[in-house]
Amino acid sequence: MPPNPPPLITRPEGLYCPDGDFYVDPLRPVPRALITHGHADHARAGHGAVMATRQTLDIMALRYGADFTQSRQVAEGVCRIGGVEVSFHPAGHVLGSAQVCIAGPGGRVVVTGDYTRTPNAACAPWEPVACDILVTEATFALPVFRHPDPQDEITKLLSSVAAFPDRAHLVGAYALGKAQRVIMLLRAAGYDAPIYIHGALQKLCDYHIAQGIALGDLRPATVARGKKGDFAGAIILAPPSAFAATWAQRFPDPVISFASGWMMVRARARQRGVELPLVISDHVDWPQLTQTITELDPAETWVTHGREDAILRWCEMHQRKARPLRLVGYEDEPE
């Protein structure tokens, strides 16, 4: 790596690039922000200017309103900002998600945002990007986290539907990314029946469809359809917060499910009252995280928003330079 200072430093607002005078996924409003994806803990409203993929900009407008920023710029190709070159590369996390590569006198830094190497039909696949410094998430950075094949988890869901035809299956799934991925996994498994969705998922599902993501027959679950028995045998997707409301009481003896990497932790499933946990994550697990570091072979790895200690220890054991960023304000899997 060149002897110059690295292109990124940490500030209270988040990761800052002095040579370009911008932040990446800042934690509070700043004059200029580069945004990796549309989840609320990375994409906040109120920045003076925002650069992101076209889909992320669209998603931010859907979530925050058209005036979420004073100025927006679509990330296309390699763009020069001040003294650095910036490019965006698919992260495989949610629709529009990207890794941000910043190349300057101090070397190449890749800020992964949130990412996974597991194929996701609802967005572009993760792309390896060579770098001197890798800034990686550590959401599931413990050796115990080894996520199963998501299609096998969907098989569990469909087996439960077949076993309990008189019960509705309520699947908790975050509105951006997880809901659409679960729908795509169901369609890939041959499930062509209507899937019912909570009203909070409608706008983002409609946007995915407009972007060419074939979600199939989706119907509203927030409109009463007569007797509770009308939903017997149905699959209903909703944000997890809806399960605590009276909304969930309209369904017949529901099987409560939740699609999340955290469903590997039984205590979390019990706390949420989950009867059918589905371990489906849009983040790298431990094998993928260590594989990424090994394959990209950066001179240094910076670890952020997650469980840092184990991966820092792994880097030490493998003679790899690493350090924690300890940025506060990111959630593990934001709702």
UniProtKB/TrEMBL annotation:
Q: Could you tell me the superkingdom of the organism this chain comes from?
A: Bacteria
UniProt keywords (A-Z) are: Ligase
Any one GO MF annotation of this record: RNA endonuclease activity
Which InterPro entries does the UniProt record give? MBL, RibonucZ/Hydroxyglut_hydro, Xnuc_lig_assoc
Know the name of this protein? Answer: DNA ligase-associated DEXH box helicase
